[in-house]
Automatic annotation (TrEMBL), chain A:
GO CC annotations, alphabetized: plasma membrane
The keyword Plastid belongs to this UniProt entry's keyword annotation: no
Pfam families from the UniProt entry: ABC_tran, BCA_ABC_TP_C
Record has Cell membrane as a keyword: no
Record's protein name: ABC transporter ATP-binding protein
Source domain of life: Bacteria
Keywords per UniProt: ATP-binding, Nucleotide-binding, Transport
UniProt cross-references to InterPro entries, sorted A to Z: AAA+_ATPase, ABC_AA/LPS_Transport, ABC_transporter-like_ATP-bd, BCA_ABC_TP_C, P-loop_NTPase
Record domain ABC transporter: where: 43-291
GO molecular function: ATP binding; ATP hydrolysis activity
From TrEMBL, chain B:
Native organism taxonomy: Bacteria, Pseudomonadati, Pseudomonadota, Alphaproteobacteria, Hyphomicrobiales
Tagged with keyword Plastid: no
InterPro entries in alphabetical order: ABC_transp_permease (IPR001851), LivM-like (IPR043428)
UniProt xrefs under Pfam families: BPD_transp_2
Species per Swiss-Prot/TrEMBL record: Mesorhizobium tamadayense
Protein name: Branched-chain amino acid ABC transporter permease
Sample GO molecular function, one term: branched-chain amino acid transmembrane transporter activity
Amino acid sequence: MIGASLGAAAYERAPEISGILAGAGPVEDTRPARLSAKTDAILTLSGIGIAFGGVKALSDVDLEVKGGEIRAVIGPNGAGKSSLINIISGLYHADRGRIAIDGQSFSRVPASRLARLGVARTFQNLALFGGLSVRDNIASGRVHTRRASFVEHIAGLPRARREDARIAEKVDRTIAFLHLDTVADRLVATLPYGLQKRVELARALVAEPKILLLDEPMAGMTATEKAEMAGFVRAARDRHGVTIILIEHDIGVVMGLSDRVAVLDYGRKIADGTPAEVRTDPAVIRAYIGTADGEGI
Amino acid sequence: MAVQALDAGRPSIDWQKWALPAALIAVAYCLIPAYASSYLVEAILLPFLALSLAAVGLNLLTGYCGQLSLGSSAFMAVGAFAAYNFNLRVEGLPLAATMILAGISAAGIGVVFGLPSLRLRGFYLAVSTLAAQFFVQWALTKFGWFSNDNPSGVISAPHLVIAGFSFDGATGRYLLSVTTVILLTALVWRLVNSATGRNFIAVRDNETAARVIGVPVLRTKLLAFAISSFIIGVAGVLWAFTYLRTVEPAGFNLDRSFQILFIIIIGGLASIRGAFLGAAFIVVFPLALSRLGAALFGWLFDSGVLDMSQRIVLGALIIIFLIAEPNGLSALLDRLKRRIGSRSS
């Protein structure tokens, strides 16, 4: 019970201890989970490291996300932002470190159980199902709640029909929330890029996740579309209380939107705090001015 | 507000959508049995129905679920030989039960050869389904038991009797075939429009996203292999029992697998209607070509030239379709309908 007595601040200040704690137990290590309960953290990354063919994409990154906050992770191109989100969603497996999601600790997050763990995500490059309508794409976000078998679907048995009706209702509410009514029955591949991004947000939101991972939700959008998307992201948090982890390349957009910002550079976390703190951090200024991505500061 | 949206989202019954299938069923059950010549039934409709059903099965796997297979005719062979053996070895087994058991046998083999799909994709998966093609053909030839020790592995169709009525005549075989095709197609139509069908499409369009939102990707792929092989297996029974009446393992070769793949490419991937359009094309095309060739070139157009020109034209057509209209005849038909619709309004 050393862990419980350490307290939040000590835990954050002593990565080597947290590393020992995280590495001590078997796969279902409960100690970091108890710690996170104490700090209201819904997601905790500790000592995450990953390398691709000898190139370190992330090294020793800690990140703690509180329930209900909008947490931005920013950084120049190639800073490791997408790797981080892919590790949280189980698409990549970290070489070292642990991930605690809502009290459950993993060294490798099982991607196929992600939705049932209460985590939904969007992708940097659209990952919609082009052959399905907007409505069906959104409905697929609740596939993890379905229990009826294919035989029940073919025969149209009560359980399959009940599931369909329940999901249709949630889909309709999400469509109304994100103002997608006019395009709901169109094939998703025929929509303009900005709307497709919004459909992807809808597919993630309809799952009613506890944690929502947004991988550059505003990339490639016009200024109006960015403002609109920022409004939806904020509304999703305010209305549904979902915790949001937002990866962004354009730091201007996230400053007004997020509660706390972590800055990555060359796979290391160089700053972490409120937008105001991060903005004046010399290391952040150096990282951004040192690269071509100076805009937004 | 949510209630309103729900009402708006519920589609009303679309009579126009049901008119064409109803008309086709009326033609299939009333006009054709009464007026079709036995040549039309034996040489065109029976192979058309069996190939259509096989194409519907393959389309489920390749068109909807995105898993390329070159083993279709192996699953047809499994269906045909399984039906033959169930009929031979189980006394008094009803024909419907024989066909269902044959389909289940094909589904079992389909799942086994679908296992590589859990690790392999696209071209590599296609190569691994070739294993099914060669293994099944080899096993059926090698082990005499499958053909009841016929020296050349040939099996002959049994008497087709349902509830005391014989379906051995051309019209009887046609009715048996068309009923089977309609029933299974209706089930597939229900399936592709259900959540399971949308899972197939999700796996096809973006496997990673499908996995992350909770689609059971592995189970979905194996299910696609199982259902697809079931349907192709039953199509094999129709091929052997209603069309050819006598088949050998060599009849279910790689050419047949490619033929079914070409049907869904020409007809349209992920379209049930496309499977029928493509099958109609593949069956009628050689006959039309031979008539046309004979009319244009007379005696010069012998069977060797016919065979050669058939392959050349078909190959060219597939290339044209893949480039110009990847969604096949089905999409072409849609475009034609829209054009007529816009002109009349």
